[in-house]
Design brief:
The structure is a single chain. By secondary structure, the protein is of the alpha+beta class. Helix content is 46%, strand content 23%. It is built from 14 helices and 17 strands. The strands form four sheets. Strands 1-3-2-4-5-6 form a six-stranded mixed beta sheet, sandwiched between helices. Strands 8-7-11-10-9 form a five-stranded antiparallel beta sheet, with helices on both faces. Strand 2, helix 1 and strand 3 form a beta-alpha-beta unit. The radius of gyration is 47 Å and the shape is rod-shaped.
């Protein structure tokens, strides 16, 4: 028998639902279809289970009136097909078998109702009405579940793609959820983190300070201001047993979560957001370092040297000991830059700084305060003659040529000195005297060079009368 569609008698009235009658008995199928159509339903018929399956997957059917015994594919196979395809179609099983086997088997497979032949109109109408109500209820539940799942998926997606470390702790402080960034930054997989206690990621000396953030304390606020915290990362395999475990510095904000049960707030976990500020902290440390150090030589600059000088002077006054300040200048830096280039000049300055570091004692302070000018602070001076000896030793050590790209560059060094308390009793006085002494030494050197040049000219004239 070919498929047949029977519309309701008016054709214009809104359909109460779409039904499918499946029966290999043509007269019985048409009789049921006519009766159901008269009740305001759109009805189709199918002569066997195979044709019914084709209709079910091509257009929506609300309820199928399904004969259980058919030669091609019986009703049980159609119900299996509906369940396998996860169709929302409801099933009313129909059978002429007087035993209870069909009823029990069909209800177990998901049929809403079972009706025996011959079909009583009242029983059929009631069964159809119940099936449609179930279908509507299931559709509403599925819609709510779909919206909840969509919302949860969106929240999960936002949780996972967030740029910060996100986590959720249970009431005992164990991780219930972590996002991808948390896993990536700490080096632990999500599986490793879930169930782990937060104390496992915190240094022992930090636990007491951070405990109030994660644990419930009814006397403290539910939301805490941002706090800095170091998290321990997963240890990587290393051949160095003394290597310290890697940590990351984070800025953490957390909030306790509560549910309302019987009118009371019940604590059920802690939600946390942490920003990885390790890079910013290193950058801040670098900026602080650059603020007080010379970038070329790595030596303290004038700002930091002034602090050292003030402290050393206070100590010298308190202990009644001497203090020496050496003003060391590379006289011919300008000529080196002009002749060999600024890169060669920088190389000479770095070589000069390295040589000076080798000459200073433990406790001495060396600084670069200007382009070609260095200051050396020598505390705890007992005898003045030792300063003269040290200054000359330093000057001689610095005059050796510097090799730059195969070229030998000679250095012209002048050293000025200032002694506390002989030359001055405060920092400004010492600095000024060291400059004056440096100037005097420079003038003396120029006179010596001029005398040497004049002497050379006299010798040249005498040798060439």
């Amino acid at each position: 028998m070919s498929e047949q569609k029977i519309d309701n008698k008016h054709g214009k009235e809104k359909s109460k639902g779409r039904l499918l009658v499946v029966d290999d008995d043509i007269r019985h199928a048409e009789s049921l279809a006519m009766m159901v159509s008269s009740w305001g339903y759109d009805v189709e018929t199918a002569p066997d289970g195979a044709k019914a399956a084709g209709i079910l997957v091509t257009r929506p059917i609300d309820v199928v009136l399904l004969d259980l015994h058919m030669p091609v594919a019986d009703g049980h196979k159609v119900m299996d097909f509906i369940r396998k395809r996860k169709l929302t179609t409801r099933v009313i099983a129909i059978s002429g078998d007087p035993s209870m086997d069909d009823a029990i088997k069909s209800l177990k497979k998901g049929a809403d109702n079972f009706i025996r032949k011959p079909v009583a109109p009242v029983d059929l109408l009631k069964a159809i009405d119940e099936s449609l109500k179930r279908r509507t209820q299931e559709a509403e539940v599925a819609d709510v579940k779909r919206r909840v799942d969509t919302k949860n998926s969106l929240h999960r997606l936002m949780f996972d793609v967030a740029p910060n470390l996100l986590f959720l702790l249970d009431v005992n402080g164990h991780f219930r959820m972590v996002n991808n960034v948390f896993s990536k930054v700490t080096g632990y997989s999500k599986q490793e983190l879930l169930g782990m206690h937060w104390k496992s990621l915190v240094e022992n000396d930090e636990i007491e300070r951070i405990e109030h953030v994660f644990e419930e304390r009814r006397t403290t606020p539910d939301q805490f201001p941002e706090v800095e915290l170091r998290l321990k990362c997963k240890e990587q395999s290393s051949n160095d047993p003394g290597q310290k475990p890697r940590t990351v510095l984070v800025a953490l904000q957390s909030r306790r979560l509560y549910s309302v049960q019987e009118g009371k707030k019940v604590f059920f976990g802690t939600y946390g957001v942490a920003r990885d500020i390790t890079h910013y902290n290193k950058l801040e440390e670098l900026n602080k370092y650059r603020e007080f150090h010379d970038t070329l030589t790595g030596l303290p600059n004038r700002v930091l040297f002034d602090d050292y000088l003030n402290f050393a002077l206070t100590q010298a006054k308190h202990s009644n000991t001497g203090l020496c300040l050496l003003n060391i200048v590379l006289d011919d830096l300008k000529q080196v830059n002009e002749r060999y280039g600024h890169a060669a000049g920088d190389t000479c300055l770095k070589a000069l700084a390295t040589r000076l570091k080798r000459q200073v004692r433990k406790g001495d302070t060396l600084a670069r305060i200007d382009g070609s000018e260095f200051l050396l602070l020598l505390p705890n001076i007992r005898e003045e003659k030792s300063v003269v000896h040290l200054a000359e030793k330093i000057r001689m050590a610095l005059t050796y040529p510097v090799i730059v790209e195969g070229k030998s560059i000679s250095l012209q060094i002048t050293v000025g000195t200032a002694l506390f308390p002989r030359d001055a009793k405060d920092t400004d006085g010492l600095l000024q005297h060291a400059k004056i002494d440096f100037g005097a030494m420079a003038q003396s050197r120029k006179r010596q060079q001029a005398t040497a040049t004049s002497s050379n000219w006299i010798k040249l004239i005498k040798s060439n009368p």
